Predict the structure.
Amino acid sequence: MPDRIVSATSTDGSISIAAGVTTNLVAEVRQRHDLSPTASAALGRLMTGAALLGTGLKGRERLSLQIAADGPLGNLIADVTTSKGGTIGARGYVAHPTVDVPLNGRGKFDVGRAVGRGRMQVTLSYEVGQPYVGIVELASGEIGDDIAAYLMRSQQIPSVVALGVLANPRGIKAAGGAIAQVMPGADEGAIAQLEERARSMPPITSQIDRGATPDDLIATLAGPLSMRRLGENELAFRCRCTPQRVEVALVALGTDELSRMAEEQPQTEAVCEFCRRRYVLSRDEMHGLIRRIEKRHESGR
Ligand SMILES: [Zn+2]
């Protein structure tokens, strides 16, 4: 079954919830990037969070979550777009994918330690006009807390964010999450009740591992509230890299460096850091690229 995200709002208007199962997505990212278990948990949570926040995207809008922090994993990026059919496409990057750290005192992945301290930047790019950029200090580096901190500090939205990845050295057993946001005008009790239900519910990954669907996750978080389903999106790994974009990245190296690369090896290999796809340019193609850059410089004079 493909990964799915479902969104719903309570009929009393107090909360909205997006919940998703992202097991296949995280398994694919783990495989593409050869992620360690802790890196799988960190990047899997970040991509799940981005996908859940991305359910409201329209057309060619794009949402990205970028973490710049001092932990052993280095920087992390997750970004999502939507396609015409409503499928959410997600991709991710982590600077040091194979780094692992020991489990924490509670026997869980120590994502907070692996990520470290730093900032998260949220960028929402629209089809036209300036992108929206929000930057927050990381709350704990556990990703869920950090997204909740962003929603509170940048958007003034109280929320409960539960993200989880159940991984072992052989792969991903379950992944998914839910983001419940308190709507403007809701009474004070709404957030307290929501937090209480989030605290008392079984971990997201054990619910998913036992077969819970996004609708089940919503029902658990909603408790006695009656919910109205707004819609659902499929979710899939998708990268936007193309041979043209790889060329643009190579051009940025400059003609001297490109000439050196073409001299040194019969083929130049470029790897997309989001999907690990390999692009191979022959020596002839490299020389063609260098000639095109030089021509452009001459005509620019
Ligand atoms: Zn790519």
User: Anything to note?
Assistant: DSSP finds ten helices and twelve strands in the chain. The radius of gyration is 21 Å. The first helix runs from residue 23 to 33. Residues 239, 241, 272, 274-275, 277 surround zinc ion (CB under 6 Å).
